[in-house]
Amino acid sequence: MGAGLAGWAAVEALRALDRDLPITLVTACSGDRYHKPELSVALSRGQSADDLVRESGSEAARRLGVQLLPRTFVTGLSPQSRRLRTTRGTLSYTGLVLAMGARPALPEALPEAHCWRVNDLAGWSGLQRALADGPARVAVVGGGMVGCELAEDLARAGHRVSLLDRHAYPLAGLLPEAAGRRLLAAQRALGIAVHPNVAVAGVERNAAGERVVQLADGERLVVDQVVAATGLATEPRLARQAGLDFAGGICVDGRTLATSVPGIFALGDCIAIEGQPCRFIEPLARQAEALAHALLERDHPGYRHAAPVVRLKTRQLPITLSGRPDPDADWVTVSDDAERLEMEQRQGERVLATLSVGAGRRAA
């Protein structure tokens, strides 16, 4: 269930183990294959939706010998009888893989009717069409990774960008202040109007068709488009209806990716491992390989979760974070000059995390 990067990774891994296994892929979209991280850098490159598609869903299905059910929605799941109910009928399964991703977590102040969500190709295509007539005023709400990448991409594409964030500097939940301040300065140098320490109280559309962003402090910002980049959340409805353990995501075994219900596995943005959501692209191939072996009862050492390397796709100021930062541990500056900032966290002799901000080579 699901034909994003995770769903197709699972199909590839299963097919590699068994050439004849009957596989049905159910997806609410077309199933076209594209690399999702490219959505946050595609506008400045002048790319279209067709440019981003690497392989159509129908082509991938033929190549891998898969029955693809596009534009099909799942309406229910009965684990006891191993049946999946969809808008195109009920499917029986031996094993079920949930790769349903996560949806944008929109606060009440950001109504869907007035805000774009760039979480898939369809959402990105809609925003691209809305901006096709030339430079526009765009407000990006949220200073996390996606918000920062989209703000830079929009600015480089010629739009007037306002970045609204609840924190004093972007990526405040991930970066120490020294790094966050550098990123803030780089964004402003690119022409992005950064509004730190602000909360959005609402968004409305005026008679001229503009969006009016109402801030909690009373200020009003008039723009042409609003992009919400306020994080992701796993939809719990199907998991709870099927009796799957759920804690911020579908709970899976950290080695096999099995859920709490026999015969059902999950991977990608929709899962939680040891109570923590796992929303990164890098582990997907390893998750899919371990899951496929477990589902087909083949020997495998299992998936081993590790903090992936985080790379912010901002040309203005590249940022790379490795390791698992401790929010209560201090960051120590290793080197600091106009071109690059290097920092790390240590616990005794053990390095918890390293951070590189800026261009140039990492210090030896």
TrEMBL record:
Record's signal peptide: none
InterPro entries: FAD-bd_OxRdtase, FAD/NAD-bd_sf, FAD/NAD-binding_dom
CC cofactor: FAD
Entry-linked Gene3D superfamilies: FAD/NAD(P)-binding domain
Domain of life: Bacteria
Residues annotated as domain FAD/NAD(P)-binding: 2-274
Key words of the record: FAD, Flavoprotein
Pfam families: Pyr_redox_2
PANTHER family: NITRITE REDUCTASE [NAD(P)H], PYRIDINE NUCLEOTIDE-DISULFIDE OXIDOREDUCTASE DOMAIN-CONTAINING
Similarity field: Belongs to the FAD-dependent oxidoreductase family.
Protein's recorded name: FAD-dependent oxidoreductase
